[in-house]
Amino acid sequence: MKPHTKILFVCLGNICRSPAAEGIFKQLLKKNGIEERFDVDSAGTYGGHAGELPDRRMRAHAARRGYNLLHKSRKIRPEDFDTFDLIIGMDDYNIDTLRSLSPTPETAGKIYRMTDFCEHYPADHVPDPYYDGADGFENVLNILEDSCEGLLRKLSE
């Protein structure tokens, strides 16, 4: 693991999946006593929710699991591709958008799919729960908990 690793989680609006991934990963780092070794943030490929807290439903479901999601939504910025070591998208649309925004092949090499790190929960993407009911939010949290644990394990190797 690098002495200091910078990770950016990305979804569409930065109000459901990516702020949840940020909150879960930060709590996992805190639990392991290594939060000072990481900078963790999240962003969206769409800026229409900039400045907003995560979706109230995601905050409620996350709070039941002990996660306090306080991130304010923001759109990904060109400098993020230089700042962050890993840029982790939630689905094919986000991955494709990130690749199209990436200024160089080197920065495009920093882009990963969140579910690449799943170890126990079978998923090929993190679905957008925005138009789903409670089960959709719970499913997303299950996937994110598994993939965040897998990401930390991968970084620790």
What report would you give on this structure?
The protein has one domain (5-156): Response regulator (Rossmann fold). Helix 1 packs across helix 6 (134-156) and helix 2 packs across helix 6 (134-156). The termini are close together. The chain has a 4-stranded parallel beta sheet, sandwiched between helices. It is built from 6 helices and 4 strands. The chain has helices at residues 17-31, 56-64, 80-83, 92-101, 105-108, 134-156, and strands spanning 5-11, 38-44, 86-89, 111-113. It is of the alpha/beta class and 157 residues long. Strand 1, helix 1 (17-31) and strand 2 form a beta-alpha-beta unit.
List keywords for this structure.
4-stranded parallel sheet; 157 residues; globular; alpha/beta; Rossmann fold; 41% helix; single chain; 4 strands
Task: Please give the structural blueprint.
Layout: E1 5-11, H1 17-31, E2 38-44, H2 56-64, H3 80-83, E3 86-89, H4 92-101, H5 105-108, E4 111-113, H6 134-156
Parallel strand pairs: 1-2, 1-3, 3-4
Write a compact overview of the structure shown:
The chain has about 160 residues and is α/β, with parallel strands linked by helices. Helix content is about 40%, strand content about 15%. The chain has one domain: Rossmann fold (3-Layer(aba) Sandwich), CATH 3.40.50.
CATH hierarchy class name: Alpha Beta
Number of helices: 6
Mean pLDDT figure: 96
Q: Domains counted in the coordinates: how many?
A: 1
| Oligomer class | single chain
Q: Can you tell me the CATH superfamily?
A: Response regulator
Helix content: 40-55%
Radius of gyration: 14 Å
Q: Report how far the terminal alpha carbons are from each other.
A: 7 Å
Q: Would you identify the CATH architecture?
A: 3-Layer(aba) Sandwich
Q: Strand order, biggest sheet?
A: 2-1-3-4
Beta-strand residue percentage = 5-15%
One letter per element, helices H and strands E, the order comes to EHEHHEHHEH
CATH topology: Rossmann fold
Question: Which ranges are low-confidence, i.e. pLDDT below 50, for 5 or more consecutive residues?
Answer: none
Shape: globular
Number of strands: 4
The main pleated sheet reads as:
4 strands, parallel
User: What structural class results from the helix and strand content?
Assistant: alpha/beta
